[in-house]
Design a protein that fits this description.
single chain, mainly beta, GRAM, 7 strands, 156 residues
Length: 156
């Protein structure tokens, strides 16, 4: 959908479109306050899976517990610690490799994933599997590498 409005700047136009859809604006307009469990979404972006009690294995500060949300275009991790908010936002276009890793001493239903990004970032997560939810590693693989899964409908 393309809109052409004479005399309107792009920021005002995007702010107006986002306000019509009740979504926060990203990059343009006034900063938007998000609730702790709210993920900033682009217009048309949908949440695929949300997993609570995920541990981000930080190379600098150790384990950080939080919520991991996978959308159509990104992985979004927010910490549960109130004093220091930690947010990790990784666009799927930045991921070069996705691997499962072993998580020792955490129980049988605990899995781990490692994301290696093209910009040298590396993120490791450990989470408990739940039979009622789809497999997070598979969901990440499908959206990060859609051509490998013949998901051409995701590419626009």
């Amino acid at each position: 959908m393309f809109l052409a409005v004479e005399g309107a700047d792009l920021g005002a136009l995007l702010t107006a479109l986002c306000s019509l859809q009740n979504r926060p604006t990203l990059g343009f307009g006034a900063p938007v306050k998000l609730s702790p469990n709210q993920v900033p979404l682009l217009p048309g972006e949908t949440v695929q899976i949300t997993v609570k009690d995920v541990m981000y294995i930080c190379p600098f500060s150790g384990l950080i517990t939080g919520t991991l949300t996978v959308t159509d275009y990104k992985l979004y991790f927010t910490s549960l610690i109130k004093e220091s908010s930690f947010i990790l936002d990784i666009n799927f276009g930045a991921i070069s490799r996705l691997e499962t890793i072993s998580v020792p001493n955490q129980g049988d239903n605990t899995k781990g994933i490692e994301l290696v990004c093209k910009d040298i970032r590396s993120a490791r997560f450990a989470y408990k599997t739940d039979e009622s939810q789809p497999e997070m590693g598979e969901m990440l693989s499908k959206h990060a590498f859609p051509l490998s899964y013949s998901l051409v409908s995701l590419i626009k």
